[in-house]
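From: lab user (bench 3)
To: helpdesk
Subject: output format question, protein + fe (ii) ion

Hello, I'm new to running complex predictions and I'm not sure whether the block I got back is the full result or only part of it. Here's what I submitted:
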Amino acid sequence: MPGTIAAQTVEQLGGRSSVLARQRRDHAELDRLMDQYQAPGDVENRERVLKETIQLVFSHAFAEETVLWPAVRRSVADGEELTARVEEEHQEINDLVFEIERLGPGAPEREEKVRRVFALIRQDIRDEEDLLLPRLQEAVDPVHLRRLGASWEAVRKSAPTHPHPVVPRRPPGNAVLGVPLSLYDRIRDGLGLGSPVAAVRKMLSRLVGMLLSAVAVVRERR
Ligand SMILES: [Fe+2]
Ligand SMILES: [Fe+2]
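Helpdesk reply: Thanks, we reran it on our side. This is the complete output you should expect:
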């Protein structure tokens, strides 16, 4: 079995567009953001970094649950057991971030929850890079890895960006609820960032992206 994807070259992972290389890039970005949040800095900047971390964690994980874990269950013998473990981690991350967002900045118990969620995200990354993704790499060829990469990226770009306690971790339930919730999340994110016109324009392009990613999921599942 190939070893951890952390120690392989991009070529060994199937090239830059392979789902393995894309996963590793996102994981490195998450690591960077979490380190930045934990470094000393002003409150406003740390809040911005935390928000960015949460948005990336949720879009990344939603695309895994919609595109990648079903592919692992189809092609790896003990895929069911392997994906159940990371889905549990995702659920714990979901519940903790829901609490963090509910408490808001400055709440005394919030920092402890942020520390716990960061530890879980780091554990999730290790489980994926060291156990689950090498198993997928062993089971499918590089062309399939690149095709999965394209589907994963399309869903990730238009996925929900915040926790939602009601969303199931598996398709088709997550994909069905994901579209309206993603729209809702991105309106929230968009309104916090720029003018209403810019937010609406951004939303329309996201909506088109969501439709395209729904098509990508249907194609991948065939
Ligand atoms: Fe991941
Ligand atoms: Fe994950």
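A quick orientation on your result: The chain has two domains: 5-159, 161-222. Let us know if anything else is unclear.
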